[in-house]
Amino acid sequence: MALNDESAAANTKFKAITKDLYDSVNRNFTLQGLTGSLPELYTEGFDEEQIWQQLELHNEPSFKILMKNVAKLLTGKDKKLSFYKVEVQTDDEEQEENGLENEEDKDSVASDLSFQLPSDSDNENEDGDDSDLDETDALKFDEYKMLDEEREERPKKNREQSMGKIRKTEVDDEFFKVGEMEKFLEKEEAEKPVKDDDEDSIDYFEDVLSDDDENEAAVKAKYKDFFRGSIPAGDQQQEMDEEDEDLEEGDEEMENEEELDDDDEEPREKRVKFDLNGSDSSDEDESDTSNDNLTKSGGKSSYELRQERLKAKIQELEDEAVAPKPWQLMGETKAELRPDNALLEEDLFFDHTTRQAPVITEETTKTLEEIIRQRIKDQAFDDVERKIKPVYDPTEFKKKLVLDQEKSKFSLAEIYEQEFLKQQETQKAEAKSSSLADVPNDEASEDQNRAALRKRMATVFAKLDALCNFSYTPRAPEPDVKIVSNMPSIVMEEIAPVTVSDANLLAPQEVQDPTRGVLKGTTEKAKTDRLRERRKKKSAQRVRHKERERTEKAVDKANPGLGNKHAKARVLHNLQKAEKEGTVSLIKDNRTKATKSSTAFFKQLQEDVSASVDAVRQGKQKTNLKNKRSTGSQFKL
Amino acid sequence: MEVSEETAVDRPAFPPIKREKLENGVEIRKISVPAHRYSPLKENWMKLFTPIVEHLHLQIRFNLKNRQVELRTCKDTKDIANVQKAADFVKAFICGFEVEDALALIRLDDLFVDSFEIKDVKSSLKGDHLNRAIGRLAGKGGRTKFTIENVTKTRIVLADQKIHILGSYQNIQIAKRAICNLILGSPPSKVYGNLRAVASRSSDRF
Asked: Which parts form a coiled-coil structure per UniProt (chain B) (predicted)?
């Protein structure tokens, strides 16, 4: 029971301590970027589990942030860290003052201190790094505060870990462990005495005895050799001791010097500037009289040196000017005069005389396709359209006006009626076609409106034509039908011809059809030409014959037999042919001649009869002849 | 129908007369009928009668004693001018035109009848020449006359030596010119040619 009471009291005391610690930490050393942690630890009425959870809530993210910061420092991103005053609470001020004293003990160079490991500070003082706030750019205030806090925290941990545990960070790998390094350094620092006192250990900053002659000058170098300006007052006594350090830190400070050169306003005592006489900077102001006190081997003044350099440069330039120019600056160069493939390495400018082939990108193809599509939609193609020659033959128009030679079937009234109706229809059609929008109801008023509109439009157009000086294309003139007969012209024009002219009104091509092809005389014609002509003639004959047959047939149908003239003519024609051949013998008709005497009459009669008898006898003889040749046996030999 | 009137001087414009202004209020027209048209008149009397009475609202009778057709207005006639129309109609029929052709006179305002003689055109024609001239006018089977009629949209009556033409003013002129040319001796082909040209032009002018 007593044990339990003791443990309970211990518990409450422990809780109170943790709460105080937590609160103080949160108040004074808040990490940047830490969110989610409670402002104070609530212990009253909370379970130990819950308290642990609250602590975890604070610790987990802060671990990460702190590890990040450490990693940053270790990788040395900000190569220089400067130390400045940190406005912390009163419990830290004592440590701060200690830090200041420490600072003064150190070298003046330490105002731009190089990288110092955090473990160093642990040895001297927890806040040995709380140095003066200089004006240089370095860790930010907060970051440093964070760092400070970290260092505050770490001592607790280090003490725990120095027993045996090594701190684990993100940077660790096989070969390198931050924790081990820190441990080692701690050990060394612990063993190492105040710098100048120990003689057994190797003083890294001591003079190194070497056989090299080169380093002699470097070994004997003094502050004045490297740094411009007077030695800061506070450090002059320590100059002898620290002059060796200059060599080591010179390299690192070269870069710093370049940047710090800008801040010339600072008092010279604080600032240490590099003496750059040995290097190639020539724009120094010679206001420093300290340069005159330099004791260099050779004994040349800066002016002399500069002159020498100038002369060297001049000599160089002269040589360049005198020497033969490189091939790039010689006018025309052949391949032999320049090295192999030298043109490839040169950047050449020349004019392109040819048009470059167009670069085909997606955009160009897109635009082309757009154009094609639009053309197809508009049906605006570039096709060549066939031109048709218009026919201007007046004979064509003659055929249109047909002369009706029959009595008209319609009476006059009907004709006029038809005409009137036609006119009305055309007017209606015109009215309908002229309307742009299809208005379903065609009222009389609308027609009137349209008529009025048309009139007005006509006037407007007339005015426009007048304005543009009638430069419009008029309608093509239709050929006027003019009946011309091939009579001497003057006869047509005047009733009483005063003079007579032979000129014909018709042109030769209007009288006769134009002959196509080359005219050939009879001797020039080849066989093919002659045959062609014959064929033409025959075909024309055939056509004519067919026509005649057709008409005669039609006529025969109407008046069959010998009723029509064609039949009569045909018969007569046949008769004449027959008479020519001899099949028919015409009886000469002498009866018209009146027989004056009886002897003449009887003579005629006798002739007629004898002629008929002869004819009969001849016929009989023929048959007898035919009959005689009846049996073939009579011909037998 | 178009009637081209050339007005060199401004004509005095008289408004149409109203019936109230007349003395009796009754207009009478008398048209004498020659003997050779007597029987055609008898045959076509009804055809003459109906349009005059029904459409024009006039009174018509044939005076047998005078051999005259008489036309008279009555109370029903709406327009006094109808009398003149009817008179023209009857006169055209008497001249020799057919009823249907003469009917056009009633229906259309601008139709006229022009009459002239051959001796007006060429007085020196006598005997056979005159007959030949008449034959030329008629053509074979009346072809020439019909051609002129068809092309000029007129009706022509050849009454031996008198020629009557019925149609609109311009068409009458065209037909008259053609006939005169024929009388004067032009061959019909030539006349046809001229007719065609003129007719096409006149149709375009419509």
From this structure: none
